[in-house]
Amino acid sequence: MGIKTYIKLASALILPILLIPLMLIMLITGDDDTVSMPSNNIETASSISVSSDVERYRPLFEKYAKKYGLETQINILMALTMQESGGRVPDVMQSSESLGLAPNSITDPEQSIDAGCNHFKSVLTKAKGDVDLTLQSYNFGGGFISWVQDGRGGKYTPLLAKQFSVVMASKMGWNNYGDAEYVQHVRRYLVATSANVASSKQMDVIMKEALKYQGQPYVWGGNTANSGFDCSGLTQWCYKQANVSLPRTAEEQYNVATKITESQAKAGDLVFFSGTYAGKFITHVGIYVGNGRMYNSNDSGVEYSSLSNAYWKAHFVGFGRILK
């Protein structure tokens, strides 16, 4: 967390703005972005996978979540703590700097959780309930919120986080700025429940429809049976037949999916990739069918693909589950 200290010093030179107690540092700059996602003001998973070092503090998280009106965010707060410290240091939420103190100045875990929950609530309010924008700002500083809300849609996207990191690293003369994938790193500890897995009946409907198009060519921008399909057009169309609504693009589908691990993935989940072409963070999506395979529309056409293939392994991001 040393980056926060450097950011705080640099921001004093860049912005002549008084820091509000318990708010993150303020930094403003950046480029535009057109991708957006809905505000997410509730947890998107009903359980978490964290270490016993973090789990032991659950009563304190429940206590201070109630104090600050964050009862629906307990698992988010604990996942954040897992990312910040793993529960291995007294300042478990790395809250010292939000109080204007040096890193790890807090020596009482309860004080850290109290301050961290209070700070999270302040940032969540500024982010207008967008939990992912709040999480990313916990790492970048509150200036990320101002930047996103300044004509860039006002909501978190992975692409905006990457742009902000690049712009600020260049401005500061640093090799990198913060963790642009902080949201993903926090959310990997959130676990979807089995109730959210596509039923076998739904999967049958999805694959019955999908297999109609096996062997057809990839069509950029295609999202209907008549036009043909690109990757996200195929998933959107096939899931629609099972009364599951998906947004249009691969990145938007990634944004609304609950992130799950490979060991949790089941047939009917989605699998996401990055860097298959220049541009957005998430650039490809397929339907996971189990046994390390997916069904997808790629440059070779609509087909089954092995996730162990070197190309897909190199671009793999993770699995997602759509909540119904």
UniProtKB/TrEMBL annotation:
Positions of the NlpC/P60 domain: 200-323
CDD domains assigned: CwlT-like (cd16891)
InterPro entries, per the entry: CwlT-like_lysozyme (IPR047194), Lysozyme-like_dom_sf (IPR023346), NLP_P60_dom (IPR000064), Papain-like_cys_pep_sf (IPR038765), Peptidase_C40 (IPR051202)
Domain of life: Bacteria
Gene Ontology terms for molecular function: cysteine-type peptidase activity
GO biological process assignments: proteolysis
TM segment ranges: 12-30
Keywords in alphabetical order: Hydrolase, Membrane, Protease, Thiol protease, Transmembrane, Transmembrane helix
Gene3D superfamilies assigned to the protein according to its UniProt record, in alphabetical order: 1.10.530.10, endopeptidase domain like (from Nostoc punctiforme)
Family the UniProt entry places it in: Belongs to the peptidase C40 family.
Name this polypeptide is given: Transglycosylase SLT domain-containing protein
Organism listed in the record: Listeria rustica
Upper lineage: Bacteria, Bacillati, Bacillota, Bacilli, Bacillales
